[in-house]
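Record 1 of the preview.
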Amino acid sequence: MSATPPRLEIDRLIDDRRTRIIVCCGSGGVGKTTTAAAIGLRAAERGRQVCVLTVDPARRLAQSMGLTSLDNTPRRVEGVEAGGNGSLHAMMLDMKRTFDEIVEAHADPARAAQILANPFYQSLSSSFAGTQEYMAMEKLGQLRRSDEWDLIVVDTPPSRSALDFLDAPERLGRFLDGRLIRLLASPVRAGRPFTKVINAGFTMMTGALTKLLGGQLLRDAQTFITAFDTLFGGFRERADATYRLLQAPGTAFLVVAAPEPDALREAAYFVERLGEERMPLAGLILNRVHRLPASRLSAPRSLAAAETLEAGTLEPDGHQVAVAALRLHAERMTLSEREQRVAGAFTSAHPAVPVAEVAALPVDVHDLKGLRRLAKDLAGLGR
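->
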């Protein structure tokens, strides 16, 4: 790197009892899910009561923790070598089940049953853009309010949408307060039949929507809004409370990236966006780093030595291994130096962001032993 960034002290972060939420964000394919699990494991083994919440549909988290599956209920992870009272639980967000739980908790049984059976609600709760991110915030708020865990580690969805949960309250609020919703809700709120709304000047809009969506869907939507009307405000209030929780000093955001141009461009986006939203950034985790070999023989000199050996008069068996080793060393040096240049560009642009490096592993992490090894390296003890 062109400048040495401050070191991200993971152990100091997780040992600080004031740290109650760690949010791991980053683009897809950088090892974010595994990193979140490793942080959760290390925190548990250092005495924290930890719950890891993933909203990534991948099953790697469950497999690495020795669980057959994850669902919307935190499951205890066995095999944690906790010194003291530490424990580890893990869960995977089920956004529809979380939405259903909200309806069941905040509506009387008859109205809840009406909402849950409504086709428009079923579509909204399963596939509406932003629902997953909103429900992730809702579930995070539930976990934090339960006070059962003193540390919650959140693994966000991959790609740039990983920060969509910051926009989820406003997006859902815009939808619920939007013109179409007001149009559909106005017959109920004003006590007028739906036909009078059409006669009042909405014939063209309603006709177009009927052709596009179908008359039954519009009727389902109006029925849903009629039943759901009293719950709208509660959604916004809870989402706003969770948003404030994310800004609080007890929350720490970790941006996970690989030493590749695209991944670090995304990381820069996350860092800048978190700054704009006044979210507490703890640092960058640079994952899958190919560190410089112990021998600092340059790549060109290594290749030159390999070519000299190949052109020599020794028997092939006498130098074949040496030639292969020199070429491998040259490749490793080239890769490591390229990664340093790419990471250096990020550091130059964001010199105050603390960084922790994790070495590239020869195999994928698939159990607690692998997570433990990764966590040790993350803490700066694996070199």
